[in-house]
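batch_manifest entry 22 of 60
target: Homocysteine S-methyltransferase
source organism: Saccharopolyspora taberi
requested by: lab member K.T.
priority: normal
notes from requester: please return tokens only, no post-processing; we will run our own comparison against the previous entry in this batch. if the run fails, retry once and flag.
--- input ---
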Amino acid sequence: MVLDGGLATELEARGHDLSDDLWSARLLTDAPDEITAAHEAFFRAGAVIATTASYQASFAGFAARGIGRGQAAALMRRSVELAAAARDRLPQDRPRWIAASVGPYGAMLADGSEYRGRYGLPTADLVGFHRPRLEVLAAAAPDLLALETVPDVQEGVALAEALDGIGVPAWLSYTVDGDRTRAGQPLAEAFEVARDHDGIVAVGVNCCSPDDAGPAIALARRITGKPVVVYPNSGETWDARRRQWTGPSRFGEPARWVDAGASIVGGCCRVRPADIAALAAAIG
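--- output ---
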């Protein structure tokens, strides 16, 4: 199955400045039609799963912008509605799914913490952060929840606990560096979080180097026995000082991830509809 690419990347390509702390979630208020258009571009490229513009959406993040809980909940629901609107614009020639994006706690901090983890919070506090947004997104009736860019095992545990009783299946995807989480834990330990959780129906990695995707596939299958999702970045490098991407794309031949046993493949940062079209063509 083909997942979409970098939603924020596509929105930036359409002329939007996403340097705001809310990132793409800001456009849920400022330019919702543009979000729908970006989803549609990925669907037309061959993606059959769209991830919503809710990665950076949280009650705390919206509150920092003076947006109350009622409006914040409505905006989170809107993220699912916009993806569904894009799906409805297309011919009903194949099944297409909506995955409600649930980013890590560090995304709300908007300081790069999602690439470090180890926030210094008790697990119970992380559960308390994630559970309300999971409830709101689930109530919007997505097909599944994308618990993504998770940097450490502790947050994986918290998300699994927060997912209990939600009633919508989820995948759990870590951001990694080599064979370890961004926080430095063995990836095998991270995947074990999902092994016995019935609500987590797939596991994998995202927002990482394309070179790290392949080795994670066999490990995820061996540890969990569940379908594997992989959607790395293009391979370019983020220069935090200059606040820009540098170097060439190394997205390469993503069909190799299917050959290695991945069930869902796509892209994250800097992956455009043209990349997804090539991926869809390569895997048929």
